[in-house]
Amino acid sequence: QVQLVESGGGLVQPGGSLRLSCVASGFTLDYYTIGWFRQDPGKEREAVSCISRNDIRLYPADSVKGRFTISRDNTKNTVYLQMNDLEPEDTAVYYCAAAFTHYDYPCPPSSEYNYWGQGTQVTVSS
Q1: Residue 22 to residues 15, 42, 48, 84: CA-CA distances in angstroms?
Q2: Residue 88: CA atoms inside 13 Å, Cβ hemisphere, count?
Q3: Which of 23, 49, 87, 111 has the fewest beta carbons closer than 10 A?
Q4: Rounded CA gap, 99 and 112, in Å?
């Protein structure tokens, strides 16, 4: 069974940090670009960060640049999103997704992702 499972969300104060994990099962992440997305109620889903099969990292969301870091550990079949200096505007459900790629393609369109996790809630509030 193919699954992506996110974890690491929770309630944190502004300025705090969280590390989200995305663990794949049923397949290996070696040939996949992994993207982190987020969505708040009433808002469109936003691409936060993507990491290619060869560890090219992009941060389409300007608001997270310099604060969030995406990484992957293929030996653990896991992708991480380190989130520092969190702001209330970062509050959202965070999803990871996997897109199969033949090339080193960091951030394909969201429609190209093959698998999606169920999300983990991140709430930033005092």
Answers
A1: 23, 24, 14, 17
A2: 2
A3: 111
A4: 6
